[in-house]
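Predict structure. Input: Galactosylgalactosylxylosylprotein 3-beta-glucuronosyltransferase, 69 residues.
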Amino acid sequence: MLWLGSGVYFHTGCVKVSPESCFLSQFKLNRSQVEPFGHDREPKEILVWHTKTKNIGTQGENHGYITEK
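Output follows.
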């Protein structure tokens, strides 16, 4: 869950470092405050995102998720 209005966003200060880590670090959470989920479900949930999407020609089931073409 992301907090709307939290002031957390991708910004130019994150460009030269790992953007995902920079973004997540703004939440000021430690591991004890984070709960992983979905590891025991089938089909597996997609719990990652990419800041640059590239179509590499992969095909497969979308498991009901909405995907961009």
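The mean pLDDT is 73.
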